Amino acid sequence: MAQPSLTKRSSFSVLTQPSLGLPRSSGPASASAAGPGSSPGLLASAMSSGISPFSPSSTASLNPPLRAAYFESHKPLYAIDWSLSAYQRGPGRIAVATCTEDSNNRIQILQANPVSEVQSNGQQTTSLDFNKIADAGVTYPCTRLRWDPFAGRSMGGTIERLATAGDFLRIWEYNTETMTLRQSSLLANKTKSDYTAPLTSLDWNATDNSLVITSSIDTTCTIWDLNTSTAKTQLIAHDKEVFDARFTTGNADVFASVGADGSVRVFDLRSLEHSTIIYEPVNPPPLLRISTNSRDPNMLATFSIDSNVVHVLDIRSPGTPVVELDAHMGSVNAVEWAPQQRNILATSSDDCQVLVWDITSNRSDIAMAYTENAEVNNLAWNASGDWIAAVAGRGVQGVRLGYKQ
């Protein structure tokens, strides 16, 4: 079947795609441009008039076609990262992790391979094929995983490191020659007691890849030195649980964090006596995730629990978001800035959609949209910014943007 792609959008209205009982291997829906005042009722109207809102081969059949650029795991997935390293050849590798309450979770490595694809008009294009090439067991579900930003540079290019957060910070090594994944170190987030507080997130420093930051429910953020396998710095970052922390681009010392106290805080490791509170409204709900812009160290994006709104913040103008993105019709689950463009941002939600936003001059437009058959719980960009991997249920769907970056 044709590779699903993000479609152009001309308004903030969103057509939510219900599953309609289709088999999981059927083609995902492709969001259509909706005019002002559009509503989910248009979907029913389109179907009753015989106009299908789905991609090709969307109707149920005895032998539904396989998805292009798709991988399905044996269990529900959550954590995902697409390697952004400039030292890798080809489309790179994707790491995903299952998320179940039992102790049989897996980390899986997918190779993205270019394949030729013939469109319905007879034109030949290049798509991707996701193949699992390695996996390893882990007891606790991964709350986040991140590739080493310099993956493939050291050790003759045969070893690529991966960090995962959950019960501990674990560093993994993927061997490109033997295609095996093994845990190389385990770092425990212990404070004054033997209790190890679960980790909610992590980030790998893109300037100094010996540094990894983790956030924890014990209100702390910890900077780890991988050269010595020790905690370089640990600080109480929030009044309540810390749910996410990210380094700002181009700097080994500055990071931003969010947590259950509803605030966005920015820290400088060179001056830890105080933090800068960028955003803290009155009686705020918990903030779940934060994304730092890889092209602009001043731009951040975050969202709160059970909210369809994404707040875009500028460190230079604390207190009020520069723009708020509110087109989703369900709770937002993920937000990520594009790797190659300062003004492009992607979000995913319980409304089964991935939206790509163009944010310029304190305003925003929905540039493109993609609709899945289930809630989209997470997403990741590829290195060039022309593909997004969307996590929904047990599957990872690669979605190609409809324009060149």
Report on this structure:
By secondary structure, this protein is mainly beta. Helix content is 2%, strand content 46%. A 5-stranded antiparallel beta sheet has the order 1-26-25-24-23, with no helix packed on it. A hairpin with a 3-residue loop joins strand 8 (159-165) and strand 9. The longest helix is centred in the N-terminal third of the chain and has 8 residues, at 41-48. The protein is globular.
Order of helices and strands: EHEEEEEEEEEEEEEEEEEEEEEEEEEEEE
Low-confidence stretches: 9-64
Distance between the termini: 24 Å
What Rg do the Cα atoms give? 21 Å
Please name the defining characteristics of this protein.
single chain; mainly beta; five-stranded antiparallel sheet
Element layout with pairings:
Layout: E1 7-8, H1 41-48, E2 70-72, E3 77-82, E4 93-98, E5 105-118, E6 124-138, E7 144-147, E8 159-165, E9 169-175, E10 180-187, E11 199-204, E12 211-216, E13 220-225, E14 230-236, E15 242-247, E16 254-259, E17 264-268, E18 276-279, E19 287-292, E20 299-304, E21 310-314, E22 323-325, E23 332-337, E24 344-349, E25 353-360, E26 363-371, E27 376-381, E28 387-392, E29 395-400
Antiparallel strand pairs: 1-26, 2-29, 3-4, 4-5, 5-6, 7-8, 8-9, 9-10, 11-12, 12-13, 13-14, 15-16, 16-17, 17-18, 19-20, 20-21, 21-22, 23-24, 24-25, 25-26, 27-28, 28-29
Brief sketch in words of this structure:
The chain has one helix and 29 strands. It is an all-beta fold and 405 residues long. The protein has a five-stranded antiparallel beta sheet with strand order 1-26-25-24-23, with no helix packed on it.
